[in-house]
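Ticket #4471: complex job returned nothing on first submit. Input attached below:
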Amino acid sequence: MRTFWLASYPKSGNTWMRILLANLAVAGDDGADINRLSGGFASARAPFDRMTLIDSGLLTHEEIDALRPGANAALAESGDGDDDVPELAEGPVRFVKAHDAYQYGPDGAPILGGRAGADGVLVIVRDPRDIASSFAHHSRYGIDRTIAFMNNAGACLCGHTDRGYLQLRQRLTRWSEHVASWLNQRDLPMHLVRYEDLRSMPAATLRAALDFAGWPATDAAIHRAIALSAFERVAAQEHSNGFREAPHRQAFFRRGEAGAWRDELTAAQVARIEHDHGAMMQRLGYPLAGATHLSEAG
Amino acid sequence: MYSYALSGLTVASEVVLPGASPASGGPQQADVSIRRAPVPDALTNPTARGPTWQMAARHFLIHVPGVARFYLYDGRSIAFEAAAGADPDDVPIFILGTVFGILLHQRGQIVLHASAVEVGGKAILFCGTSGAGKSTLAAALAQRGLPLVTDDLCALSLGSDGAATVHPDGRRLRLWSQTIDELALGSRRGGRMRARLEKYYVEPDGVREQALPLGAIYALREARPPHHPGITAPNVVDAALTLRRHAYRPRLINRMGQDAAYFHAATAIANGAGIFHLTRSLNFKALPIVLAQLEQHWRDIGLCRRAA
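Support reply: We reran it on our side without changes. The output follows.
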């Protein structure tokens, strides 16, 4: 089976994309169980140990990074996922979520394994102003601290060195750098998906992504998957059964809107994000609110 | 040569194995030898391979980059060649984990990724992947006076009556500094496992060194939907999958021709001592509740009459 990364900065719509893909693959009228999404995470620790046979709990983050290319290649070859939860029926393509920026290890090998790790990548992006409010809610960091995190070149997930994690360290870098790392890499065929387009034109946006990944689907199947993945439906599932990927005691599916930043961020917070990331925002077609920052950011 | 008792085997080693129990009794024929020797770069005609390893019949090669390359033969010998510039103290740490785990597979033994303590004369195993909280749970129980049986790797053998025996390895606990702080174990903290790793040896109060019958196996799960906190017993089919998933390096089961042995062991254990899921929050604040649940469960399954 072919492997594609679903690559994104956190809170950029990766999960909703996975739900859409799960609903394409699954039969029945109830919609895919959001707690049994298939494909797993590129950063899951257990598959790394399974493939390398080495106890990652005895390795430093840097030693793990040096082994990840080989582990990812072996995972792509075997099609092994994260097996903590029995997975739903899989589609014709194995989609694996990745929050890692596209980075190279100590010996220059791409950490995710280059062409040996995957056949291609769907890069999912979202307006960083919406990411800031969503991520702040998710992490309970507060918006200002989240904005600083999004502009920290050393930012990573699971990066402490004094504890064990179920995930490997994922280097995020700055938001703009994260997106650029994926858009600029030349190892993998890449298709860009804007979260905002996925919301406003779901059928056309999903169709283009599926065509890129080589997943044949009828229009009826695409419309059915979109209906089953409606925000209200997944939020209702989370409300009654919980969601395993939710932060502690908080809802994961909160608003899901595009443009919610307008009533959640202060003008100063918006200005700071546009100052930090204006160039990439313009490259992706997110109009800047503060025109005064154009020259500075560009 | 140093002589150790590890997972029920006598081991003659050219290098010190930190934390391993010295072999009892006089000089004897060792089951396993560990020595410095040239290690081939590759095997001829490997039958299976991974990013760091390859195997062919009784031969196995594994490479821990920056540490050493290891060559295992027939479950009887381990040769190693340290990497240039490697910290020599790193080599035995990987021998005691990955390498010995593979050797036990070569010997056809059931070997689980588990930590264990002794309760009422029996071994209670906690299985989980790296980061699942095995050692933390074993440390918290050891703090309550239960002898440590093993940390991280656990060898089992099955008698003709289907009863399972657990072979301790006398190892110390291996804990991240965060866990040591959270459990207030600072006074028991020993040396760092590796120079660049914030993981330390911790001496438990008591250690069990002789083989003992299996009391129960708990597979650790994080409490996230759809899994709710608590202790549950899977049906025998799920129990078989659970045991296999928690083998030490499950991919080797099939490659070593051990599928039937694991299935047989899982059936016998599920019908005997019991295989359970222990689902709980990974938050340290939840530990007292988890320990209380375990003590209640041990009374329920007849392992002890009073709380430990």
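Chain B has a mean pLDDT of 94. Closing as resolved unless it happens again.
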